[in-house]
């Protein structure tokens, strides 16, 4: 092996250099330790149900806040530019804004997975290799480690807080919150689905069965394509769809 499995891997992988990309895409069925510190190691792991327990109540609460705030009738689109032509946003629009947030999350999910998680770090850059392994490389190296299949709540809260701040800057407060909570729900669905695609047993012929087969191909055959997890929709326009395999019957 190119690494010492008895020691934390995070500080070793950066020394692999040009061998890293090939090494990280050769899966193993064994747990990975990332950090020397037990506290940091515990923060990098989580059970799948913790994500649901932490974020589902947040989604429900913020949905209620968004709906009741819109019901006051004070939210108007483009009000920061013009009051004469601003558009009122009624409470009945909330389900559609929520679904828009989920749709935008699906795009964000694809973009992050493709351009951040699957960036190819320069062989000479120890720190970018280390960052890549922390973000996603360790999942491809050990895809069956059940404790690392979902995003732990502590680091996730930092990323979620960042996107909340961006939406608050771009949109009126309540409208931004409504889009945000839809996106947060999309994230929870994505994380739960990702875990299920690794450990679930969907019935053959179902949507989830097709996604599971698709994700397995991404891990073991087509690491440079098939970046959609909760949906294959964005793989079509971005031309990263894993081709359907056909088998000709032998005579």
UniProtKB/TrEMBL annotation:
<feature type="transmembrane region" description="Helical">
    <location>
        <begin position="92"/>
        <end position="112"/>
    </location>
</feature>
<dbReference type="InterPro" id="IPR014430">
    <property type="entry name" value="Scs7"/>
</dbReference>
<keyword id="KW-0444">Lipid biosynthesis</keyword>
<keyword id="KW-0479">Metal-binding</keyword>
<feature type="transmembrane region" description="Helical">
    <location>
        <begin position="149"/>
        <end position="171"/>
    </location>
</feature>
<feature type="transmembrane region" description="Helical">
    <location>
        <begin position="177"/>
        <end position="197"/>
    </location>
</feature>
<keyword id="KW-0275">Fatty acid biosynthesis</keyword>
<protein>
    <submittedName>
        <fullName>FA2H hydroxylase</fullName>
    </submittedName>
</protein>
<feature type="transmembrane region" description="Helical">
    <location>
        <begin position="47"/>
        <end position="67"/>
    </location>
</feature>
<keyword id="KW-0256">Endoplasmic reticulum</keyword>
<keyword id="KW-0276">Fatty acid metabolism</keyword>
<dbReference type="GO" id="GO:0006633">
    <property type="term" value="P:fatty acid biosynthetic process"/>
</dbReference>
<feature type="domain" description="Fatty acid hydroxylase">
    <location>
        <begin position="98"/>
        <end position="240"/>
    </location>
</feature>
<dbReference type="Pfam" id="PF04116">
    <property type="entry name" value="FA_hydroxylase"/>
</dbReference>
<keyword id="KW-0862">Zinc</keyword>
<dbReference type="InterPro" id="IPR006694">
    <property type="entry name" value="Fatty_acid_hydroxylase"/>
</dbReference>
<keyword id="KW-0472">Membrane</keyword>
<dbReference type="GO" id="GO:0005789">
    <property type="term" value="C:endoplasmic reticulum membrane"/>
</dbReference>
<dbReference type="GO" id="GO:0080132">
    <property type="term" value="F:fatty acid 2-hydroxylase activity"/>
</dbReference>
<keyword id="KW-0560">Oxidoreductase</keyword>
<keyword id="KW-0443">Lipid metabolism</keyword>
<keyword id="KW-1133">Transmembrane helix</keyword>
<dbReference type="GO" id="GO:0005506">
    <property type="term" value="F:iron ion binding"/>
</dbReference>
<keyword id="KW-0812">Transmembrane</keyword>
